[in-house]
Amino acid sequence: MALFYVARYPGPEAAEVGAHGRARTLLERLQSRARERQQQREPAPTEAAAPTEPASRKRRRPRRRRRVNGSEPESPEARRGKRRKADDEDAGAGGPRRAGRAGSLRGASDPVLTRSPAGVCRAESSEEAPGERSARAKAAPDGRVPEEAAGPLAPGLVLGGFGRRKAPKVQPFLPKWLAEPSCVRKNVTEDLVPIEDIPEVHPDLQKQLRAHGISSYFPVQAAVIPALLESAACGFLVGRGGYRPSDLCVSAPTGSGKTLAFVIPVVQALLSRVVCHVRALVVLPTKELAQQVSKVFNIYTDTTPLRVSLVTGQKSLAKEQESLVQKTADGYRCLADIVVATPGRLVDHIDQTPGFSLQQLRFLIIDEADRMIDSMHQSWLPRVVAAAFQSEDPADPCALLQRRQAQAVTAASICCPQMPLQKLLFSATLTQNPEKLQQLGLYQPRLFSSGLAHRGLEETDEDKESGKYAFPVGLTHHYVPCSLSSKPLVVLHLVLEMGFSRVLCFTNSRENSHRLFLLVQAFGGVDVAEFSSRYGPGQRRAILKQFEQGKIQLLISTDATARGIDVQGVELVVNYDAPQYLRTYVHRVGRTARAGKTGQAFTLLLKVQERRFLRMLAEAGAPELQRHELSSTLLQPLVPRYEEALSQLEESVKEEHRQKLA
Ligand SMILES: Nc1ncnc2c1ncn2[C@@H]1O[C@H](COP(=O)(O)OP(=O)(O)OP(=O)(O)O)[C@@H](O)[C@H]1O
């Protein structure tokens, strides 16, 4: 309390004159101090460090020493005077203490960024060298460093240096399974494995494969099918040796046959089932993809008792429920062995379909896994896992056989035979980010990869060249430098003059797709259609079918068809709008050159995009893009019709706008 009072004691003069007088006294004192300082500054700068130090500084030193030693107690009067002085310094912003601070600030603006003899930019900071620190100690109270004290500056690093320097690349330290994958060859024309070389595949399935024109396995199939069949060799109970099988991650180029790599072993593993339960669940990001995969399952289960159900929301919930479960006198009967679903609709069925159970789920297949990881915020995976491990009444006589979440493997934990849940991840651009993959709760995962070769600490030059993602071997990459106004002309030139019969053209938005579609339609001479969320699922299905049948020459699409869609005979992919991400590029261009065929990809680049885009691809180790310059003389013949089409487009847009408002 006493201390508090003393600290706020305003001084004898102030007490006399009251608040107004106190301010005036303070002002006068500040003015006199400023005058004093002015006089001190007048001598030459070299004198500043010489014995003529300000009186206040001289006075302070012995006092401080006394306090530290504690040998000579200060009198109350001396203490009061010192406090008053400290108050003055704080208020005056010009006393020795402030001057020192101002000096260091000044030092930060000019001497801090200096050039050493070696030309290295240096900074004085809290990490200054001892020599520099002593020089600073000799500085005058106003912050100026005397010339003889400054001396040569020691080399050091700039903090926040302004020079543009490339930041060193941080090498990720990957877990062993990611750093050392099982390498899968990517050439689907050369590295084929004849069907008979993998005798583990059931003869009926081999027959089906041949019936569908497949005589050899592609490399990813030759690697993954035997691995999966081996892990499923013990039927529906724990894998080989009594242990739970590893989860598998597969990263292989677009069009390399990843779908069959899981369809064949899953169908074979389920062939021996007696009772129908949902034992395989495939989750895909879009309705179209789910439909495509369910079609492949249907082909290979056609002659078996296995049933496949598609739940994507294309049909009503009630209709889908009818394909999943049937009400019986004593409960529900499952009607599907394999469910192919989109995540949202799947969760609807977990919540709302009585009798829909995932407790016997053996395979959880996540196709386009990197995209599905991006949709993890929808929490579909925890819902699926919870449904798969849902435990019934512990008093149930079958409780011993019920599945439990994986814990530490002990002799006791493996003595009860359990059906394992194995996760299988597939993508052409599988993430290598362990944090992202960790969200999937993988069990002792194993990676099969064509592109992510040995990226651990000991990365070799060869590995760097192998690139982040692998592209189909038969794909040729081009880019066309062009202006914004000439982009539609370039597309028309590619379609009309280069004679491609099936062209897939990507834009970055559905508005862009629609306008380009209207423009090309108005230009005439091209069978054109658009594919985007403007259309319902039924219309989209019909459009894709027509495109596949060759009735549409140019399909203008958003990224809705960029992933997984397998349309036979696409010869050319045009990136009308350059993709922003490498992953998008990989999937878009992967709609051509599938299954060992050849294909071309053209990306239209504005001048401002060129450098960044080419650098993005080069850094990812993508094959070099061939520059394809289209001179104005080549495009000139198209211009008159194009201008007419432009004015028609304007009319169409106005008309649509009017209809929208009506
Ligand atoms: N062994 C094979 N022999 C011949 N054709 C095959 C073989 N395996 C798959 N295909 C065909 O290759 C095409 C591409 O297969 P799939 O759609 O499975 O590729 P993907 O690797 O999943 O591609 P994406 O990453 O784009 O989804 C399909 O038309 C498929 O029928």
TrEMBL record:
Residues 490-646 form the Helicase C-terminal domain. InterPro entries: DEAD/DEAH_box_helicase_dom (IPR011545), Helicase_ATP-bd (IPR014001), Helicase_C-like (IPR001650), P-loop_NTPase (IPR027417), RNA-helicase_DEAD-box_CS (IPR000629). Residues 57-68 have a biased composition (Basic residues). Residues 41-54 have a biased composition (Low complexity). ATP-binding RNA helicase involved in the biogenesis of 60S ribosomal subunits. It comes from Cebus imitator (Panamanian white-faced capuchin). The Q motif is unique to and characteristic of the DEAD box family of RNA helicases and controls ATP binding and hydrolysis. It catalyses: ATP + H2O = ADP + phosphate + H(+). Coiled coil: none annotated. This is ATP-dependent RNA helicase. Residues 239-448 form the Helicase ATP-binding domain. SMART domains: DEXDc (SM00487), HELICc (SM00490). The lineage of its organism: Eukaryota, Metazoa, Chordata, Craniata, Vertebrata. Keywords: ATP-binding, Helicase, Hydrolase, Nucleotide-binding, RNA-binding. Pfam families: DEAD (PF00270), Helicase_C (PF00271). Residues 29-40, 130-147 have a biased composition (Basic and acidic residues).
